[in-house]
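Subject: design request, 225 residues
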């Protein structure tokens, strides 16, 4: 239990809530813990969603899987990250994509009714939950923008531009592997590598295994116009 409380203390829902208070809350509510092997499915697209999931250990990906076999990674979530918070309160409370455990994972699931009870009893958690929903809207808007981009070059530049704003640096630390980045953009890794090499040869970026350096941010902005 102590390990779980430590993880919950780092997640957005319980931000600024003392561990002792989190433990009291968890002991009073109904919840369940699921354990998943690598590459197993946590939830299929169109499954009902009435639970908020918090990752206690491991990594999951939200993927859109098409009948053609193509799949696009919409987002990757790791320890202390949350999913399902917006879906379970919608009128159409079904998963819009498939949730896959890409590493051995442990997830705590809290029912919608318990989230309502927690929020009604704790103003800090209520504010945190509203912040979660607001962030989810912003993230979805960003994803819509990404999906509207026509070329791989535009997708790479959009990703770098957003990371530049987030990290406040022209030298960007990659939060995922090259393979993970390719999946995120819905392309094969060789295609991603070829386009990044072209961008490097044109003097727009430079890169090594774990970082990408933007040589001139105006070049990136021009590609996105």
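Subject: RE: design request

Done. Sequence follows.
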């Amino acid at each position: 239990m102590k390990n779980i409380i430590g993880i919950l203390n780092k997640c957005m829902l319980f931000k600024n809530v003392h561990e002792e208070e989190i433990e009291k809350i968890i002991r009073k509510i109904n919840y369940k813990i699921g354990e998943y092997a690598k590459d197993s499915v946590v939830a299929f697209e169109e499954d009902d969603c009435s639970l908020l999931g918090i990752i206690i250990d491991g990594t999951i990906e939200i993927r859109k899987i098409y009948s053609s076999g193509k799949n696009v990674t919409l987002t990757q979530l790791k320890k202390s990250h949350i999913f399902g918070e917006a879906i379970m309160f919608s009128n159409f409370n079904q998963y819009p994509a498939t949730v896959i455990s890409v590493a051995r994972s442990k997830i705590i699931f809290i029912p919608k009714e318990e989230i309502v009870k927690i929020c009604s009893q704790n103003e800090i958690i209520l504010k945190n939950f509203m912040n979660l929903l607001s962030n989810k809207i912003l993230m979805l808007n960003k994803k819509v923008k990404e999906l509207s981009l026509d070329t791989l070059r535009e997708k790479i530049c959009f990703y770098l531009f957003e990371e530049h704003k987030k990290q406040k640096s022209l030298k960007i630390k990659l939060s995922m592997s090259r393979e993970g980045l390719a999946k995120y953009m819905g392309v094969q890794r060789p295609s991603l590598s070829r386009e990044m090499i072209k961008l490097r040869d044109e003097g727009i970026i430079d890169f090594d295994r774990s970082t990408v350096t933007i040589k001139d941010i105006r070049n990136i902005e021009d590609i996105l116009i």
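Helices lie at 2-8, 19-28, 112-121, 123-148, 152-167, 178-185, 189-201, 217-224.
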